[in-house]
Amino acid sequence: MKIQMNSRKISSAKTLPILRRATRQVEVGSIAVGGDAPVSVQTMTKTDTRDVEATLSQIRAAASVGCDIVRIAVIDADACKALKKIVKQADMPVVADIHFDHKLAISALKAGVAGLRINPGNIGSVKKVEEIVNIARERSVPIRIGVNSGSLEKDILESDGGPTAAGLVESALRHVRILEDLDYREIKISVKSSDVLMTVNAYRLLSEKCDYPLHLGVTEAGTFLAGTVRSSVAMGSLLLDGIGDTIRVSLTDTPEKEVRVGLEMLRCLGLREGATHVISCPTCGRIAVDVRSVACEVEERLEKYYAENPKAAQPHVAVMGCMVNGPGEARGADIALAGGDGKFALYLRGNHLKSVKESEAIDALMEEVRKYRD
After folding, report:
1. pLDDT by residue (tens digit) across 131-179?
2. 3-class secondary structure for the chain?
3. What is the pLDDT of residue 4?
4. How far apart are CA 223 and CA 200, in angstroms?
5. Average of per-residue pLDDT values in the chain
6. Using CA atoms, how far apart are residues 339 and 347, in angstroms rounded to an integer?
7. I want to staple 156 with a disulfide (CB 3.0 to 4.6 A). Which of 53, 167, 337, 344 is the partner?
8. Is the pLDDT of residue 319 over 80?
9. pLDDT surpasses 70 at 12
10. What is the pLDDT of residues 229-283, one digit of tens each?
């Protein structure tokens, strides 16, 4: 059977923007979430919140690679005391993650947090929830209702025979109604599972039932490789559908790596502006230069350079390993290196500038980046 391809339709599809679902907008400190705001990237500190310096160190590291919002576990009164110091010194809005104890939520609000993650149904009586809402209302602090497949209500689990996408949504909307009954609508919602398909189906179903901004994530996604793949498949599918207003990649790894994965996900979908954009070949038996080391160092140096020079032009950079595809790919990038026998050819806007030793290649490329003008 002959397959006909419409090349015009295929090529134009590359430039079509993702049409995002219309949602309400809330303000998490200085970061808008929902509406026409860019999709924001979150992480969560892995430290004991009571250790102020260790927690701030992780926040600064996350901020250095582009994080927008950070979440912190608040487990007791001592953590609340530390939280006040952390909020004052943090480089970004801080969200307090609290379970069961409404007094901790109140203390966190008084400490100045920009957001809360609670499930109203787990806090206790409606009176306790109302106490939280009354204080949150003073600054319009958003409350994220975060439902996970591992913490669904007993009656939902019994009714559905276990965790399901529909059960996640039913649980989330129960919690939403508690806040709505108190006339509070500064709400974000997440419905996460460690099961990728359940996560995707839950968010799709939820997006049809409400217009609150959605916080995307796969819970307990795993270590760096597995967690990155699972998160990318789930969140990428949803973002392509226009679903999602803020994301958190949950990895058994550092906050910086969570942020890097999240930002790269958004950039490749055209949902966030560039910053470091390096393509590199996978290498093969033809290479005669250390492409991996060069590409990794180029990424690190570019990230540092853009962090120090946020208004600098951000050219598309390529690091290629041989002279088969290298020159062609290099001509498609703004600045590129194409490897040869212990040396690299340096290209600017597709034109060959010069050839340099492998040991000089990164410095030569960075010099062109610094001189580059859009």
Report:
1. 999 999 999 999 999 999 888 889 999 999 999 999 999 999 999 999 9
2. CCCCCCHHHHHHHCCCCCCCCCCCEEEECCEEEECCCCCEEEEECCCCCCCHHHHHHHHHHHHHCCCCEEEEECCCHHHHHHHHHHHHHCCCCEEEECCCCHHHHHHHHHCCCCEEECCHHHHCCHHHHHHHHHHHHHHCCCEEEEEEHHHCCHHHHHHHCCCCHHHHHHHHHHHHHHHHHCCCCCEEEEEECCCHHHHHHHHHHHHHHCCCCEEECCCCCCCHHHHHHHHHHHHHHHHHCCCCCEEECCCCCCHHHHHHHHHHHHHHCCCCCCCCCEEECCCCCCCCCCHHHHHHHHHHHHHHHHHHCCCCCCCCEEEECCCCCHHHHHHHCCEEEEECCCEEEEEECCEEEEEEEHHHHHHHHHHHHHHCCC
3. 34
4. 20
5. 90
6. 11
7. 167
8. yes
9. no
10. 999 999 999 999 999 999 999 999 999 999 999 999 998 898 987 656 788 888 8
Amino acid in the structure at residue 47 = T
